What does this fold into?
Amino acid sequence: MPTHTTLVWDLPTRLFHWLLAGAVAGAVITAKIGGNAMLWHGRLGLFIVGLLGFRLVWGVLGSHTARFARFVRGPAAIRAYLRGHWHGIGHNPLGALSVVAMLLVLCAQAASGLVANDDIAFNGPLYAAVSKELSDALTGWHRRGEWAVLILIGLHLAAVLFYTVVKKEPLLRPMLTGRKPVARPQPATERGGVRALILALAAAGALVWLANGGLLPPPPPPAALDTPAW
Ligand code: HEM
Ligand code: HEM
It folds into this structure.
């Protein structure tokens, strides 16, 4: 019976997770509504770009359990996990695959959205940086990418449910409170620190600026209208 708890997910990782879940849900819903909601689709999309940028840097400089180098493991570690020989905290070697897949698919979805166009009124903020042909091709991938996103989220939720109900290992509470029950006291996990947090936030801000066309030349002013005679 576990009598101790240990910090498994730091606050930045938890905030990242729940903001990402909300923003992705919002991006899918606004894409379904279409029309004026596409304006919000673009805003949520840019927010997702920032979140992903933050997570990529936090995955290098952040707390122990957030670091890719710690949780992304090879086939031997996955086999050992499946044989019941893994007792770490954080993402297990198998779950890590789905985390990486979700992050990669969301990066591709966000990148293609930045140059996408709907042939009517709404373009991604970097549309002007590519040819119409490339934008059309990537718009096709952006539409198809929705399925990859939805399938991975479905698998993700099914895995959380499976661990909670079948393996009696509740994962949801640690993703909310950060703490997880453990049998023995654990040494404190290495924390990311304020400097790493500032760097990750700055990188996210810079990425959003670039993604929003920060380096593109300003659009030409609208053609002057002929002054009516009256
Ligand atoms: C759009 C929806 C969602 C997306 C895109 C998403 C994405 C992710 C990602 C990327 C991670 C890895 C966290 C990290 O290391 O940064 C993660 C972990 C996790 N997510 Fe979600 N998530 C979504 C919805 C949910 C929901 C609704 C729940 C709760 C029912 C949930 C529960 C969890 C849990 C418990 C973990 C930690 C898993 C573990 O212990 O290894 N997620 N999710
Ligand atoms: C990562 C999360 C995203 C998801 C899940 C997503 C999903 C979708 C879906 C499903 C559509 C198709 C709507 C339809 O025609 O039925 C769409 C269209 C579009 N999205 Fe995204 N999107 C995401 C991010 C972005 C980003 C970052 C941008 C740019 C800022 C963006 C810009 C666009 C544009 C311009 C369209 C219109 C293209 C068209 O008519 O198909 N999206 N998105």
Q: What stands out?
A: The beta strands are 4-7, 179-182. The first strand starts at residue 4 and ends at 7. The mean pLDDT is 94.
